[in-house]
Amino acid sequence: MNHNDHDDEENADVYIPPAPAFPDLKHAKVDHDRKHRPPGLKLSDTLIMMFAEIVLMVFYGLFVENETVPKPNFPDPGEEDLPGMLDLVQPFKRYPPGFDNFVGSPRSQERKTQEHYSSFIQIAFFIFLSLPWSFSFLRKFSYSSATFALFTACVSIQFGIIVMQLVDRVHCIFLENMLLNPDPDITPEKLAALNFTDFNYQCQVMRPQDEIEDGFGLRQVRQACYCRVWTEMSGNKTKTVLRPLVAAHALLVTGHRDFKPFSLSLSFMDIIDGMYSTVPTLISFGVMVGKMAPVQNVVLVFMNVLSYAFNYWVCIYVIGAFDGTGGSTITHTFGAFFGAACTAVATPKGAENDPDCCGRYQSDIFSLFGSLMIWAYYPSYNSFYAPSNAQQAVAINTYLALLGSSVSGLLASALFTGDIKLSIFDAQRSSIAGGVAIGSVANLTAEPWEAIVIGAVGGVACSWAGHYMRVFCVGRLKVHDTVGVMSMHGWPGLIGWIAGVIKLIPLNLDYITGDRKSKNLAYILPWENILQHQQGNGDAAIAQAVIAPMTIAIALVTGLVAGAVSKKVTHLDLELLFKDDTFFHVPDDFQKALDEDHIPDEMGDHDGHANGHANGHANGHANGDTKMIANGTKGGELAV
């Protein structure tokens, strides 16, 4: 036996302890907490969401039908169409250009269908790809941010398609009631001129257009006639054969696709209507990313879509306001304030101090890519409902506004940070704030410089709100906005509202009836199809001025209710927030790779995180990126 064999026998008798699984107790505690963390998705939550989806499926099966394509030709007059034709009146339903083109060639209709499909795809990219990616900046919540945003959008669109068609039907009921109880501002003289007898309008008499005083209230009464026609023809479809012209115009005015009282249609336009109702839902979702369970998001969807539809009906149909094609106020401002109110009630206290409520270098790049995709598709979103002779101008004005906000937002970022350095938060948010701000006036802005200025002001407002208003909201109001949608949608949306009021103030009677070739009337727009208030006495500006306070009030009240309801359904404990492994199976390197950035002390003190990330980028992403405010406790610092 040689010497080496003797040494091996001695070593075999010596106990060699295994290497520790973790380098220290901190890592061991983190692994223990991860393995013993309860799942964030409970069985009861899953069953509730499945039930909600089944209800939607049943509703679609019973009441939703595909629209017939190609559309039928506009009919020839029938036996009872003339005389007795109703007053022709503009629809209250919002349509994309060319929707009402009843032409004889199926090929022409096919071309229009392709145009709508192109817009459908671009808006789908805007909602399903761009927005979810822009939410995926959180260091341990990227799986959940993108997936739950997609989940929320899918549920919201299914519900929005239904609700936005019901809005038209509710408005018809409202208008039919006006035939018996007209607006008080309609004087007896006007009633007599339009054949009212004991407040009962004689709908069957067609008057010459030059004898009709086309005020907003009187136009609603004339629209109500077609709502009554639809009600009568849905009960007796023989009348659609005797009066086909009246029937076709009744469908166009009221937004119905047929005379089936319990049937809803499904077309590209209906889906896009659902998509537009989903945007405020995703905006509100951005406020609460990482702080709500999926079943709470479902509650958010139903409450948000219903509230948005109600606000849309009040502001656009009842008040008759003009909010452009991008909806700066009724979409962006509503979504931001609804989310802020909801998170004020539903979010656990202390969520803003969570060590994982921050970004990471790689995830910030993905989020920036999502913002850039929003930037690229924003003109398509803003221009879909623009009149055909202004659609190009709306897209161009949106691009110009985005250019202005991208430049001004970054320059403002360098000033607001205090050290002349840029913030990735501002790069991701202020670059698209111009598209929000121009939404109300994109088809009213005549000169290119106006679009650039509006976009630039929106970009500066976004950067300013991200650095200062977030401090106030978190420190004083205890409202934590994860993504920063108040700065990205809320304040730029108000800039768009103000721009809309300013642009509509000069619309006096001389302005509207003046030379249409003058530079004051851009794009030779058909004002009767754009503005619902056309009296030339400031009525359009007044209606526009009313909708922001109305929208904010509705958003705050309904948001508080939605937050309270979602908190009753379920809630997440503080230690479960902002973590993918609460809901997902994650790779083995998930904890190891991310814990290299931060390992908390055993006693749960977050001083190390707050101080370290306040000086770096990460915590600044979720909480504002530039300054420090204290909440009065050790380790209670918030980088904002």
UniProtKB/TrEMBL annotation:
Domain Ammonium transporter AmtB-like span(s) in chain numbering: 279-573
Bias (Low complexity) ranges: 611-625
Compartments reported by the entry: Membrane
Superkingdom of the organism of origin: Eukaryota
Membrane topology: Multi-pass membrane protein
GO biological process, one term: ammonium homeostasis
Record-linked InterPro entries: Ammonium/urea_transptr (IPR029020), NH4_transpt_AmtB-like_dom (IPR024041)
Keywords of the record: Membrane, Transmembrane, Transmembrane helix
One Pfam match: Ammonium_transp
Region called Disordered, residue ranges: 1-24, 606-640
Segments passing through the bilayer: 46-64, 117-135, 141-167, 298-320, 358-378, 398-418, 452-469, 490-509, 541-565
Species per Swiss-Prot/TrEMBL record: Hemiselmis andersenii
GO CC terms in record: plasma membrane
GO MF annotation: an example: ammonium channel activity
The protein, known as: Ammonium transporter AmtB-like domain-containing protein
